[in-house]
Design brief:
Elements (H helix, E strand, L loop, with lengths): L3 E2 L25 E3 L3 E4 L43 E2 L8 E8 L6 E2 L4 E7 L6 E7 L2 E6 L4 E7 H4 L5 H5 L6 E5 L4 E7 L6 E8 L8 E9 L1 E11 L6 E10 L3 E11 H6 L6 E7 L5 E6 L10 E8 L2 E11 L4 E12 L11 E5 L1 E6 L6 E9 L3 E12 L2 E12 L6 E8 L5 E9 L5 E8 L6 E7 L12 E4 L16 E4 L7 E8 L10 E10 L6 E7 L2 E4 L4 E11 L3 E8 L5 E5 L4 E3 L4 E9 L6 E10 L4 E10 L1
Parallel strand pairs: 1-6, 4-28, 19-25, 37-44
Antiparallel strand pairs: 2-18, 3-14, 5-35, 7-8, 8-9, 9-10, 11-12, 12-13, 13-14, 15-16, 16-17, 17-18, 19-20, 20-21, 21-22, 23-24, 25-26, 26-27, 27-28, 29-30, 30-31, 31-32, 33-34, 34-35, 36-38, 38-42, 39-41, 39-43, 40-42, 43-44
């Protein structure tokens, strides 16, 4: 069997002029398009298993990777790595759970392994995990039982025809849409013009069933390195996507930041809209991807993030999204977010050491999948993301937590760190945050004495800011990759939506050595939890958060107290009320639960109350922790 070597992703990124740090012109108006073809797939479980055949003959070697243009130093430039964590942190509380083998070598290299994790079915108790690698897809349950053997990704689009049905062009992504209880699978449609993106959305919550199929044309522009995020706002829910664009497959021209009509895709409509805006001469963006059960508030724009310089992050928002009219507005969120200055791992290229002479590509010229977005109701919104940076004489994982106040406003840097506790190389990371605010990082680790292994670390909210805990090895490597420098383009760390506590991670490794071209990679899938803090915490929210009270009457609002790290009894109070007004709670104290303890707050105004609009504060305390949220009160 001829072994197909993957030549997309970082391999096709070309320098574009003077770099990405230059000022950008205003983004052009968003454009709307529709799929060039649509169909319904066969049942995934009915597709024939992929043939497992390996031969070193007739190998097709991909061209050398070409990096994105160099980034400028930026305003936060300084000497040294100010966020470096050069010592192991405290025990991170990791509790390993299930681990098992995923899809193995199949004729494509590198595999680009990633997974999506579904809810446990309420009637059967079965929870699905879908893994995709370059050219194959498989379905497991959460015990590791293989439910659907690996099948060729192109066969999923067999009824669609065109490049989606005949090519396995690479860069596959799988997403689980928890709000809809459905699955999305995508991959590139072609490595030559006309270029396209293949998208499949499951018709039910069973990923082994049939899918709604679509192919979107990008014409003569290669839509390289696609990444997807789930964005289920109420009015215009979307699947967000980012692409690096290359004119005629060669010359880098910028990024396409896109949104797809989620409702239309879920319903199987024949022509769901794709709305895209192009950012000229800039790339490496990731779309925000929701974790947790609380969706972005209605009207929240879709976010896209990259690192713009070697000391700043740049955020774009796709706002006023309206699929029926085919309109949206892409704007740059100013100012850029200043972070500790860094140098791209391996200067964006190849330097990762193994216990042989073959060095590996760091892909240090971009953020690493995913940009995980989470709403902490009534408190704040958080995004976590990572990339690889130079750390002394090796490479470490730089991670960020960005926060936005619950009342709105700009995202800002809450904390950052570079995890490099020793001289080993750590790269190809993926970050996520659970419902308790614990953060985990999964990544590859290698050195002159350590074969590339699958490793992760974590932190709790009580860990010192910018610090990760000790490491845990999910799967030790037993061999090095030889002859070829590419080591995947991304990995995937996910949160189990059934408990919002369990992390699932997938990455690649080798089970044995070979002095010749060692292309027989393996993948592993593993899960773990992070011990919650022993201190019970909670969050507050009020609905509505603005009240109007007529003098001589009263108005109510519902206060929800949601448990974090265990239930507790929370005493509620209100401050900042104008004269001649009073407050009462129907339940006080209220028990904070994971479902949310409820209390009705009633504001009463006497006839002599002062008219106007006032900013009051609702506070809660469980004896060890206090939180407060604003309440706007209008007396008339």
């Amino acid at each position: 069997m001829r072994i197909k070597l993957k030549i997309v992703g970082a391999a096709l990124l070309l320098a574009a002029g003077a770099g990405l740090a230059a000022a950008h012109a205003a983004p052009p108006a968003a454009t709307v398009s529709h799929p060039s073809s649509a169909a319904i797939s066969p049942q995934l479980s009915d597709l024939p298993p992929a043939a497992w055949a390996q031969s070193p003959q007739d190998l097709k070697i991909a061209p050398s990777p070409k990096a994105l243009p160099p980034r400028g130093a930026g305003p936060g430039a300084s000497s040294g790595e100010r966020s470096l964590q050069s010592q192991p942190g405290p025990p991170g509380g990791i509790q390993p759970k299930t681990s098992f083998g995923g899809i193995g070598a199949n004729g494509s290299i590198p595999p680009d392994p990633n997974i999506a994790v579904g809810k446990n079915d309420s009637s059967t108790g079965v929870g699905y995990i879908v893994q995709v690698v370059n050219s194959e897809i498989a379905v497991f349950d959460k015990t590791g039982t293989l439910l659907t053997s690996p099948v060729k990704l192109s066969s999923l689009w067999s009824t669609l025809g065109g490049g989606c049905a005949t090519n396995n062009a690479g860069d596959p992504i799988v997403q689980y849409d928890a709000a809809a209880d459905r699955w999305l699978v995508s991959q590139l449609g072609s490595l030559s013009a006309p270029y396209s993106e293949c998208i499949a959305v499951s018709q039910t919550n069973d990923p082994r069933g049939a899918y709604n199929l679509y192919s979107y044309s990008f014409g003569n522009n290669l839509n390289d390195y696609p990444k997807f995020g789930v964005w289920p706002t109420a009015s215009n829910p979307a699947y967000l996507a980012s692409y690096n664009l290359f004119a005629n497959g060669q010359n880098f021209i910028g990024a396409a930041l896109c949104a797809y009509d989620r409702n239309a895709m879920l319903s199987g409509a024949g022509s769901p809209a794709q709305i895209c805006a192009t950012v000229a001469n800039d790339g490496g963006f990731l779309p925000a991807d929701l974790d947790g059960a609380t969706p972005p508030s209605d009207g929240t724009p879709g976010y896209f993030l990259n690192f713009e310089t070697l000391s700043t992050l740049r955020l774009y928002q796709l706002a006023q999204l309206d699929f029926p009219t085919g309109t949206a507005a892409l704007t740059e969120v100013a100012p850029d977010i200043t972070v500790a200055s860094f140098s791209e791992a391996c200067s964006g290229g190849t330097c990762v050491v193994q216990p042989n002479n073959q060095k590996l590509d760091s892909l240090g010229d971009r953020l690493m999948y995913r940009l995980a977005y989470r709403v902490f109701s009534g408190d704040h919104v958080a995004m976590v993301v990572n990339h690889s940076v130079t750390a002394g004489s090796s490479v470490g994982v730089r991670w960020y937590e960005l926060r936005q106040p619950a009342a709105g406003g700009a995202f800002s840097l809450y904390q950052q760190g570079t995890f490099a506790p020793d001289s080993a190389y750590r790269w190809m990371g993926s970050a996520a945050m659970d419902g308790a605010g614990n953060i985990a990082l999964g990544y590859s680790q290698s050195s002159g004495s350590i074969y590339p292994s699958i490793t992760f670390t974590s932190r709790t909210p009580t860990t010192p800011a910018g610090t990760m805990g000790a490491e845990t090895v999910l799967q030790a490597g037993n061999g090095a990759q030889t002859t070829y420098s590419r080591w995947g383009d991304y990995t995937s760390l996910r949160i189990d939506p059934s408990d919002d506590t369990t992390f699932w991670y997938t990455n690649e490794y080798y089970t044995s050595n070979s002095p010749f071209f060692n292309y027989l990679w393996s993948t592993a899938i593993g899960s773990f939890t992070i011990n919650a803090s022993s201190t019970a915490d909670f969050s507050l929210s009020a609905s509505p958060s603005s009240l109007t009270v007529t003098r001589g009457s009263s108005s109510p609002t519902t206060v929800t107290v949601t448990a974090v790290n265990g239930s507790s009894s929370v005493n509620l109070s209100v401050t900042g009320l104008p004269r001649a007004t009073s407050a009462s709670f129907s339940t006080n104290p209220v028990t904070a639960t994971t479902a949310g303890g409820l209390s009705t707050l009633t504001i009463s105004a006497s006839r002599g109350a002062k008219a106007g609009t006032f900013g009051a504060t609702i506070s809660g305390s469980n004896g060890s922790t206090t939180h407060a949220i604003p309440l706007m009160l209008t007396v008339q």
